[in-house]
Amino acid sequence: MNQWLEKARRKDERDALAKYKEEFYLGDAVYYMDGNSLGLMSRRSEQSMLDVMEDWKNHGIDGWTRGERPWFYMSERIGAMMADLVGAEKHEVLATSSTTMNIHQTIRTLYRPTDERYRILVDDLNFPSDIYAVQSILEDYGYGDGMVKVPSDDSHLLATDRIIDMMDESIALILLPSVLYRSGQVLEMEKLTRKAHEKGIVIGFDLCHSIGSVPHHLKAWDVDFAVWCTYKHLNGGPGSVAGLYVNEKHHHHPVSLKGWFGNDKETQFDMKHTFDQASDISQYQVGTPHIFSMAPLLGALEMFDEAGIGNIRQKSLELTDFMIGMIEDVLKDHDIDIVTPKSHDDRGGHILIGHPQAAGINAALKSKGVIPDFRAPSYVRIAPVALYNSFEDVHHTVMILKEIMDDRLYEQFDNKRGVIA
User: Does the keyword Hydrolase apply (predicted)?
Assistant: First the structure.
C-alpha cells in the first residue's frame, strides 16, 4: 500500500462528514468529480420531490396552501434555508427563476445610470451568460459601450488591486463572480464591496461556484445583491430554481420586472391591476414558481444545515489540498499545470489542471470511471465534494490520471470537446 493511500484512509477514518456519502446515489466504481457542474442526487432530494408530487396527488389545487410544504410559500421557505449559507437575513433570500434572469431582475432594479456615471464593471473571465445579460441591459438603456472589463494578466486570475483601480467615477454598478468558474480563484468580496461603496458604486456577486462550498457573510460585508444557481454544490438537480439575495436596504426600490408573485401575498388574489409590491425579497419574484424544480432543494438543503458550511469548507480544502499534493508528487514527471491558487484564502471548491491534450485526458478519465469536466482550450476541472467524496476517491482519481499519463491513453481519444463540455 502506497503512502498516499494510507494517508487517505486515515483521513477518511477521522472524517466527521463521511456519513453523508451514503445519502447520495453513486454508481459502482465511479469517482464523481463534477459536483461544481451538477451535484449528485441524494435520497433526501428524491424523497422531497416525491413528497411534493404526493401533495399534488392528494390536494390538487389546495396544495398551494395546504400540507407541510404549501407551494405558495415555497420560494420563501427555500430562501430561508439558504440564508445561513450566504450570511443573510431570511427575508433577504429567495429561490426564484434562473441565475441569468435574476441578474436581469436585480441589475435592472438597482442600476441608476446618469450621463456621467453609467458604466457597469465586469471581468474578462466571468461566465458568458453573465456578460450577455449585462450587455443586453446596457443596450436597452442606450449605453451599448458601457461595459468595462477587468483584464487578467494570465487568463486565469484577477488582481484585487486592478479591480479597485478600475472603480472610477464612470462606474455605476459592478458584477463579479465570487469564485472564477475556470480557475477556482476566490475573490476578496469584503474588500471589493467596501471599496465600491466608498466610491458610491452598487456591487453584486455571482455565487454559482461558491454557494455550498465556501461560507459567505453578505449582510456583514454589506453586499448589495447576489445571484446563484442551486444545481452545483447545493445538489438541487438539473435546472433547479436559482437563488437570490438583495440587501434589505434596497427593498424600497420598485422592481423592474413586475409579475403577480412579486405582489404582496395578502393582496395578490385581489386581482387588481395596480401592483402592490411585497415589502421583502418576495418582490423579486415574477411569475408562478416552478414547484417541481424547487422540490429537491427541500431535502438537499437539510444536509447543509446539519453538517454546517464551516465543516464543509474545511473538508473541501483538505480534499483539494490532498489532490494538489498528490498530483505534484505522483505526476511530477508529466506536463500537468495546476492553475488554481494553492492558498486557502484564494481557492474555492475545485481545481483546474492544464495540459495540451486536456480534452483527450478528460475523455480518458471518463472511460475509466472518473467524472470531471473539460474547459477549452486545454484544461480539466476536478471537484471533490465534501458531502459525497472521500479522500480515497481522490487517491483513486489521481492514480487513474497517472495511469492515463504514463501509458498515454489520452491519445486514444479525440482532443476536442463534445457538444457539452
Answer: yes
